[in-house]
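Researcher: Structure for this, please.
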Amino acid sequence: MDRRRLLLLDQVGLVLAPAALALATFTGHTPVPVLYVLGGALAGFSALQNVTRSAIVPNLVARAQLRSALALNFGLYQLTMVLGPGLGGLLIGALGVGWAYAIDALSCLALVLAVVEMAPQPPHDQPPGPPVSVLASIGEGLRYVRGNSALLGSFAIDLVAMTFGMPRALFAVLAVSVYHAGATGTGVLYASVSAGATVAALSTGWLTGARRLGLVVIWAVVVWGCAIALAGLAGTLWLAALLLAVAGAADSVSAVCRSTINQTVTPDNMRGRMSSVFSLVVTSGPRLGDIESGAVAGATGPRFSVISGGLACLAGVGVIVLAFPGLRRFGVDEPAPPPDGVPESGAAARVLAR
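Model: Predicted structure, token format:
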């Protein structure tokens, strides 16, 4: 379907969900299950928004600008992860929870107006014949992933990195019991990963000329694993935060390159499904990491959990490199992207925004 229409409907949902939360807060005595339903709806609309926006980006810029566009997209997302909670806290402290929800709804209404101004975004190169069912369409997308070694390897290496090397669930424990820094230290550790990722994503211009993106992904995940393991050894809060910022920067480089691989090898009519798989991997990995790091910390201690997770990430990279050689070779035979201003044929070069 037209991705612009889907994004518009989704933005309407992102207005209605916080508006309902604001109404529930102002009226008071809202049943707890209603809050869970509205919170789940907000999370679902947000996930659909991320997938749809990712599928639209390649048709808005020329191929030579794709990596920069994806880096900007990822960097702004990370920036909101740093600024959003602080801004929300200020609004709640000044105006209350209800008005924070209401302002959120108004900000999403502005996005509705922005999407209205976009040109239609239908998928290109749609195969002839009647549309297939939803389940058949999902199956087709999964078969495509399974048949592409570089794409499958990019998903697998991120899942390994986040499952074993993301000790986010232990940040509060480390701040309180290891560094004795309390709530302030907890906030520093949480913010450091996103801060490093933001700086790296907004300064990844050097990736524009990189050819072997698969190797860049592999080495970025190696840096991530090393930084996480060293953070577990850090003797001070600020050294741990610095190492976590380095890890976040490495993850940012990996994410931009993996997004580029995904968008480059995927036909336009499958980009929505590939973006969905990408989003599923990106969101599920850290949750699996919460379980892994918490379970290991409960059995051995928080420091050992962080260190062993970083080392397990490095071992997992070795397995991924052997299991998916297409990831290591990606970009070897790929021609360099044309310089800015040089037109190219194909759907990815069409600029569809008005």
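Researcher: Any notable elements?
Model: The CA atoms of residues 297 and 305 lie 5 Å apart. The two ends are 19 Å apart (CA to CA).
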